[in-house]
Predict the 3D structure of the following.
Amino acid sequence: MTLLFLFIFLIGIAIGSFLNVVIYRIPRDESIAFPASHCPSCKQEIPWYDNLPVIGYLLLKGRCRSCHGTISLRYPLVELLNGMGYLYLLRPFGLTWEWAAYCVLFSSLIAVTFIDLSHQIVPDLITLPGMAIGVIVSSTILPTGFLNSITGLFLGGILFYLIALLSRGGMGGGDIKLIAMIGAFTGWKAVLLTIFVSALAGSVLGLFLMLYRGKSRKYPVPFGPFLAAGAMISILWGNPIIFWYTHLGT
């Protein structure tokens, strides 16, 4: 089991290294395949031994070998987060195709989170294919089922579209597509829970920013990270939460 966990973790951080490429290049409309990994400061190509996930960052002490420019802490953070997430998902799902499907969603949500935090956009290149993948895996691998997946996709998307209309731009189109993608994986009950959890967390942060940081209500707060967190909470603990809520007062 130790070797299995190590193997899964290594796969996770390796995919996390690729996620860093996605996070950096997609908002800049750059290819995620070409050119090879290079320093964003001096543009020097990074040799394979410096590009090892986590280890390369530690050996270089967070600086480029060529220009000695600072390497963002985001790189090892994304790699570690992805590796640890893959390991944690083994607990409820085991080494199954269901686990693999949720790992795909988890990695997609990591990419969306860091892109939204940096650029306040949710790329269609992630969410649109994610909707299709969600419907496919829900119909074949996940217990969600085709009808539940389609219902979750449209319910989440339509609700957020209505919010965008009523708020006159307070909800972005990227968030609409993101919640639709989440609904395609999770179904209608879990997507409603995702919306509730993310809205609650966003409200708490908004109040904190207004009360303690002096920010106004119009201060932009990326909502993608909250939706990502809400989605994973729904997947991991959704059934107990829904059961507890529906039995309140009984």
Q: What stands out?
A: Residues 188-212 form the longest helix (25 residues). Residues 111-250 form one domain. DSSP finds nine helices and no strands in the chain. The chain has two domains: 1-95, 111-250.
